[in-house]
Amino acid sequence: MASFDETIEKAVEDRLIPGVVLLAKDKSGKLDYARAIGRRSLRPGEEDPMELNSVFTLMSMTKLVTCVGVMQVVERGLIKLDDDVASILPVLAEQQVLHGFDDEGKPILKPRQGTITLRHLLTHSYGQAYPFLDAKTARYFEQTGRPLFGNSKTVEEAFNYPLLFEPGDGFQYSPGVDWAGRIVEELTGTKFEDWMKEHILKPLGISALTFFPEHHPELLSRLVPLALRDAQSGKIVANPAPAASLTVKEAFGGSGLFADMREYFAVMESLLKDDEKLLKKETTDLMFQPHLSPVSKKACIEEFKGADWAVGHFPPTGEYDWGLAGLLTDGDSHELRKKGFQQWSGMYNLSWFIDRTAGVAGVFATQFMPFGDKKAKEFLKLFEEEVYRRAKESG
């Protein structure tokens, strides 16, 4: 039987997936797995190999870093998890609830009754949806003339649209962490990029994470281009479209980071080891606890029964909740994952997990579309299993 390394190398060679960076460590320091496999780019004439310092577009893997920054301001007493955020970001006070459409197709909007709290934003339970994941929100965009994938420069410009339900009454994956990043800016008077540099990167002795890669040519030169799965051949091919504009006016805390994966992993390792370089142990403990209301938890479990859109491995255990950084395993029935295992991912089929109880963490980084790719999910699962196997052997 082929080893994991042989299997993943063959998959990259056969273009079942593009080049990858794989990182894993355990809490003891005995496991330290790092591989860069394949080419950084599949474009003709670009033969550079994938390197451990290659730079990835993180998309929603950004949320982990932003959530750390948010919990730092919670630690400092600038805000509580259950505080109403409307006074900090008045635009959130104005958001109504979309109750459907009338006979003429016009949106039916009603004033919101409940308050939006910071906890709601961090756990995707405040009511908003990404338009590409929700038909009702997409229809609202169509009816009001908003482009589904706009080139918005600010968080407010991108995400100022109605909710689907009252805060705390459901679960819908959302731009809540983008709003939370803006709250950090308002509370501290500091741009989130600068807060991240001073309070996240500096304590860890790292620098290769940014929301503004256009200001960092040394990172842009190592950027991994987006690839695509060809619908006819099933193989991974270079993306023929030109790269999207990278210019935004402010940090998008839910999707905007670019990073060297080793330095991203340093953030994960700090949480895994409870070294308190970023957060007090009790704050990290809080991040790895369930935070959904009973009705929101039920909706979350239902969502992940058939989450074809989501990047990752979601066994049908029904044991899910949301922590303060990602999807939380809230039970003991999984053969490898322990209760409190937290994971999330990015649209371009990259993913992270941290299991503080088992003492392991891993990152699977690649860059291709479509999101939620079945092959990517297969290899993510194999990678996770390999990390636990190696941790057991090294222990």
UniProtKB/TrEMBL annotation:
Keyword Ribonucleoprotein attached: no
GO molecular function annotation: hydrolase activity
Sorted UniProt keywords: Hydrolase
InterPro entries reported in the protein's UniProt record: Beta-lactam-related, Beta-lactam/transpept-like, Diverse_Enzym_Activities
Presence of the UniProt keyword Membrane in the record: no
Stretch forming the signal peptide: none
Domain Beta-lactamase-related: 4-372
Family: Belongs to the class-A beta-lactamase family.
Name of the protein in its database record: Putative beta-lactamase family protein
Organism name: Phaeoacremonium minimum (strain UCR-PA7)
